[in-house]
Design goal:
The complex is a heterodimer. Chain A is 65% helix and 10% strand. Chain A is built from 20 helices and twelve strands. Among the domains of chain B are: 148 residues, ABC transporter transmembrane region fold; 128 residues, Rossmann fold (3-Layer(aba) Sandwich), CATH 3.40.50. The chains are: A alpha/beta, B alpha/beta.
Chain lengths: 585, 576
């Protein structure tokens, strides 16, 4: 049952692969046509050679005139065929790499419609290996498929036709024997498919063990966990050895087995051909042609079997890529989205419920209102769920129930882009794309002028350190900040938001591992930014908290209290306790 | 690279038998044309069925023996190659764990992962194919030539010529396109890097609505890659047609000059056919050989990269002395300094202080002032390059690393958890810890509540890197992990930075109130985290610019005053 299901699935994968190939069909049609011609010429060669051999019957019995004629035709065939083969190869290349290019592009594009829920949950290593390694393996398999499956199939058919015209009986012997080779190859391929799958799965597992171990090598050292880590690695390593050995050995059987069947066919042709010569129905030259055909005929079987293995492998990879692409995308943006203009920054949450895991409710019936220009401080013990709130405001995640309004418009009736355009975000976890400083700042507004970029950098107190960089604003920065310090990265993040300066801000005050002078600058930049804007601040400083228009006190993922500093203190609840604890010693 | 052969030695038998059986198979293949020649020249002219059948059966028998030989060969090759790569992977992985921090910094972690995965896989493929084909292909090529010589020495000269020409073409194209293949790989890396960047920055990209431009950028890189692939394809596609032409031209030559010799009676028709058959065998094997050489070149490059890792001698020598209670009486830095690079500037210089059990030592200073460097010297993650570090009276280098580190709990800046459960993570600190000890550590680290709230409690699963916990939760769990081993020395490297004030304060109080309070080092940017320390070291640019209590430093150390004014002033004003 499970077996059957897998097959159906494979056929579905294959059909999808075909859909990707379809745009290349003109190229492939042309390639098919040329390879037909090329195969015809290839097949004609043994006949010419057979005739030439017949012209060389023995001492004193050589027909030089006939030999010369056959050989000059032979020469023409060779030249024409070589040209055809080359063109076919180039066409196939193009078809394959263009197909793969579009697959890669689609897989990438899908990344950006996948909900963060998926991306947060799955290791990026696995997603990457599907997009890169699997796509490459797929390309290899497909290329082999095109170049060899085509010509292989045509060669087999053509050879049959040529052989039939020469001698139907010998042909029959060949036809009866060859399915053996196909059958054997098929049998092996279907068994190795699972082994290859297991191998690539185990490799993936090993890579994630490695990533973890290598990423935290120093920690392993600090806790003297070397032996335990190596033991864990060895466990996966041993399983990998086992399944690799199986996959490698069984797949390497295809060649010997098909070669064996070919040799049998060859023997059969030699035997039956020799009898035909004995009975006078065949010349020795024709027997030579036949023997070449027997080789030519079985070689594609050989190749096809190899290709089948590769294709199985490629299909397994394609399956993994499609799995990724089949992950349900985010709820699409409304077809006729509301459009906001002149946003004042009036944010309202009404009875919002949200949880990452339905079994464990997190935010329940949260209502709050941030009026234009207000400052909302989010406070609470570490890990209380501040990030969750940001996820909801930015619509990185959608609320399960309840509504979120911006300027009176339900945010789900906007496009996500339309909503995010109104919000500037500076998180503790800085992420900068690779590029020059200028490009990094202009990330929020690619059309910004040089003056605007410099102005934003100045407002973010980043201008002075940028000027000291080797090439100023043109200094290239590697991904994830490269050689910039944490604080400098954060200043660039602020400059980036400064440049666009949307009506709503989400800021995280946490400024760990930043030196004090930089931190002061960041504070100043934050204050400048917040002026007149609705801001949600993950607050770490008392001044921010006390000056906030509204304090959201969160604990264990829930908003437990909200109000102003005074009202909350007066209430003597969780916040009051939290506040007092800070000054206890 | 020769060193890698060590991992191959358990498979010596397979390494000999594999190629040997492969040779056997090739040998049988070379006999086939001779049987055909005999069939044409003797069996058929005899006019009898017996000799013809004998020839046919002989061919079938050769096929069967060939099959047996090659299956055996494939098995030995696969077993040796995979056994080798498994052992090598283990060796490299274990070796990494013997390297010092300084060595690891030089290598970088990304390259370690590729060397352990992609590179070793490539080496495995190389070994496997090498065992199968390295002997077989040349054997068939030259065997065919030698066979040709035994048939007709003059005509065999054509073989010499054609092998030479084919050799040039095949190797010219295959080796000539290697730089292009290299470019394809570089472009593939670019594409992979773009994808990785998009995954790690997905929130920012979406926040700034740059999905479109990122997709466009990817499209450009994808196009460049595709073009590179097409470019190399144009050359490789020429390989088959070119060799085919050469081979068939040689066949023409063979038939033409062979005809003269047959006419003269020095060659039979069957022998001419045999020569023709040998000719076709050559090409197949030459192409295989050239491809094999490409694979082997790649594998050799990968093997070198793997070998480089193994060649790194751990730069740190382990001590021999177990840490004793006497050694833990005090920890003394005497004029300690460290330079990461022999030629470079010192990261720390002239650091001197003494700390005793139960004390709290604060270390404060700006980014790059050397705080983390200083605490990294205590568990000997790095070796100091001048001065003395003494545990009691014992120099740090005389202590056994495992014993030294076993007494120290480290909470690094970057809070990392490992895939598993909360319990499995805590047990890192001490694999033998009891249930009570685990909860005790969690209580001190202010993490007990959060664990109790998890439905799984201690068994709550932890995803890779601890993704399913917030930064603050991770931080507290890493502190608990360090406490589980009841360390004599606890190092909090800016560890409270993700904690809010309240948790930070509660943590410090709980630490003090433990029955066995550890000697605690607190690295921080803020005076509030260290103000209650027994002594505070103020660092600036790798130098100690102040040492004393909060009150002393406020009067004596301008740098400390400045830091306090910026970070702690606010709190002080509320306080006052």
């Amino acid at each position: 049952m499970a077996e059957k299901k897998k097959r159906v699935f494979d056929r579905k994968t294959a059909r999808r692969v075909l859909r990707y190939i379809r745009p290349q069909s003109p190229l492939l049609g042309l390639s098919l046509f040329f390879s037909l011609l090329s195969v015809a010429l290839t097949l004609y060669v043994p006949i010419l050679i057979g005739r030439a051999v017949d012209a060389v019957a023995g001492a004193g019995r050589v027909d030089f005139a006939r030999l010369g004629k056959e050989l000059s035709v032979f020469g023409l065939c060779i030249a024409g065929n070589a040209a055809l083969q080359w063109i076919t190869g180039v066409l196939n290349n193009r078809a394959v790499f263009r197909t793969v290019q579009s697959l890669r592009q689609d897989a990438f594009a899908h990344l950006h419609v996948l909900p963060l829920k998926y991306l947060d949950k799955h290791s990026s290593g696995d997603i990457l290996s599907r997009m890169i390694a699997d796509v490459d393996t797929f390309a290899d398999g497909l290329l082999m498929g095109f170049t060899q499956l085509f010509t292989g199939a045509v060669t087999i058919l053509g050879t049959l036709v040529f052989m039939l015209t020469l001698s139907p009986w010998i042909t029959l012997a060949v036809v009866v024997l060859t399915p053996l080779s196909l059958f054997a190859a098929r049998f092996i391929a279907s068994h190795t498919y699972e082994m290859f799958r297991l191998q690539s799965k185990t490799r993936g597992e090993q890579t994630s063990v490695l990533n973890e171990a290598v990423g935290d090598l120093k920690l392993i050292r600090a806790f003297s966990r070397e032996a335990a880590t190596v033991a864990r690695f060895d466990e996966v390593n041993a399983r990998l050895q086992d399944c690799s050995l199986k996959a490698t050995f069984y797949s390497s059987l295809v060649n010997p087995v098909t070669r064996f069947v070919n040799a049998l066919v060859y023997a059969a042709v030699a035997l039956s051909g020799a009898f035909a010569v004995l009975s006078g129905g065949l010349t020795v030259g024709t027997l030579t042609s036949f023997l070449s055909y027997a080789n030519q005929y079985t070689k594609p079987f050989n190749e096809i079997s190899g290709v089948v293995t590769e294709l199985e492998n490629a299909l397994a990879c394609a399956g993994r890529i499609f799995d990724l692409m089949d992950e349900p995308p985010m709820v699409p943006d409304p077809e006729k989205p509301a459009v906001l203009s002149g946003v004042k920054g009036d944010f309202e949450l009404r009875k919002v419920c949200f949880s990452y895991d339905p079994a464990r409710p997190l935010i329940e019936n949260l209502s709050l209102r941030a009026r234009p220009g207000q400052r909302i401080a989010i406070v609470g013990p570490t890990g209380c769920g501040k990030t969750t709130l940001i996820n909801l405001l930015m619509r990185f995640y959608d609320a399960d129930r309840g509504e979120i309004f911006l300027d009176g418009t339900e945010t789900r009736s906007l496009t996500r882009a339309g909503l995010r355009e109104q919000i500037g975000m500076v998180l503790q976890d800085t992420w900068l794309p690779a590029g020059t400083v200028r490009e990094i700042i202009a990330y929020s507004r690619p059309d910004a002028s040089e003056e605007e970029i410099v102005a934003a950098a100045k407002a973010a107190h980043a201008h002075s350190f940028i000027r000291r960089l080797p090439q100023g604003y043109d200094t290239p920065i590697a991904e994830a900040g490269g050689s910039l310090s944490q604080g400098q990265q954060q200043l660039l993040c602020i400059a980036r938001v400064m440049l666009a300066l949307p009506p709503v801000l989400i800021l995280d005050e946490a400024t760990s591992s930043i030196d004090l002078r930089t931190e002061q600058r960041i504070q100043k930049a934050f204050t400048a930014m917040m002026a007149g804007r609705t801001s949600f601040v993950v607050a770490h400083r008392l001044s921010t908290i006390r000056e906030a228009d509204l304090i959201l006190v969160m604990n264990a993922g829930k908003v437990v209290e909200q109000g102003t500093h005074e009202s909350l203190l007066a209430r003597g609840g969780f916040y009051a306790g939290l506040y007092r604890a800070q000054f206890e010693q | 690279m020769k060193k890698l052969a060590v991992w191959m030695s358990p498979y010596r038998k397979e390494c000999i038998l594999g190629p040997l059986f492969k040779l056997l198979e090739a040998l049988f293949e070379l006999i086939v044309p001779l049987i055909i020649a005999q069939l044409v020249d003797q069996a058929i002219p005899s006019g009898e069925a017996g000799p013809v059948v004998r020839c046919g059966l002989l061919l079938a028998l050769l096929a069967l023996i060939g099959l047996a030989a090659s299956v055996t060969a494939q098995f030995f090759a696969a077993k040796a190659a995979i056994g080798f790569s498994t052992a090598l992977r283990h060796a490299v992985f274990s070796h990494i764990h013997t390297l010092s921090y300084a060595d690891l910094d030089r290598l970088g972690s990304a390259t370690l992962v590729t060397r352990l995965t992609g590179d070793i896989n490539q080496v495995q493929t190389g070994v496997n194919l090498g065992l199968r084909l390295l002997l077989r292909s040349p054997f068939v090529v030259f065997g065919a030539m030698i066979m040709a010589f035994t048939i007709d020495a003059r005509l065999a000269l054509i073989f010499v010529g054609v092998i030479a020409v084919l050799f040039v073409i095949v190797f010219g194209i295959i080796l000539g396109t290697m730089p292009m293949q290299q470019r394809v790989r570089t472009e593939t890396d670019q594409v992979a890097a773009a994808a990785r960047e998009n995954l790690s920055g997905v929130r920012v990209i979406r926040a700034f609505r740059r999905e479109g431009t990122e997709t466009e950028r990817f499209r450009r890189l994808n196009e460049v890659l595709t073009r590179a692939q097409l470019h190399v394809g144009r050359f490789t596609a020429a390989l088959n047609p070119l060799t085919w032409v050469v081979l068939n031209l040689a066949v023409i030559l063979l038939l033409r000059s062979g005809a003269l010799r047959v006419d003269a009676g020095t060659l039979t028709q069957g022998q001419l056919i045999a020569l023709y058959n040998y000719m076709s065998q050559i090409l197949v094997e030459l192409v295989k050989l050239a491809n094999l050489i490409v694979t082997l070149t790649k594998s050799a490059a990968c093997a070198r990269r793997v070998s480089e890792v193994l060649d790194i001698e751990p730069s740190q020598k382990d001590g021999t002395k177990e840490l004793t209670a006497a050694d833990l009486r005090s920890l003394t830095f005497r004029d300690v300094g460290i330079a990461y690079h022999a030629s470079g500037d010192a990261a720390l210089e002239h650091i001197s202080f003494t700390a005793r059990p139960g004390e709290t030592v604060g270390i404060i200073g700006g980014t790059g002032s050397g705080k983390t460097t200083l605490v990294n010297l205590i568990p000997r993650f790095y070796d100091h390059t001048s001065g003395e570090i003494l545990f009691g009276d014992t120099p740090i280098r005389e202590l056994k690393l495992s014993s030294l580190r076993g007494a120290i709990g480290v909470v690094p800046q970057h809070a990392a958890l490992f895939e598993g459960t909360i319990r499995s993570n805590l047990l890192w600190g001490n694999p033998d810890a009891s249930e009570a000890e685990l909860w005790d550590a969690l209580e001190t680290a202010q993490a007990a509540q959060l664990v109790r709230e998890k439905p799984g409690g201690l068994e709550e699963p932890v995803q890779q890197g601890g993704r399913n916990f917030s930064g603050g939760q991770r931080q507290r769990l890493t502190i608990a992990r360090a406490l589980v081993r009841r360390p004599a020395i606890l190092i909090l490297d800016d560890s409270a930075s993700a904690l809010d004030y309240a948790t930070d304060a509660a943590l410090r109080r709980a630490l003090r109130e433990r029955p066995d309070p550890p000697l605690t080092f607190i690295v921080s940017q803020r005076t509030s985290s260290v103000r209650f320390a027994d002594q505070i070291l103020v660092l600036e640019d790798g130098l100690c610019v102040g040492l004393g209590t909060h009150e002393e430093l406020l009067t004596s150390c301008p740098v400390y005053r400045e830091i306090h004014a910026i970070s702690g002033g606010e709190e002080a004003s509320v306080h006052g």
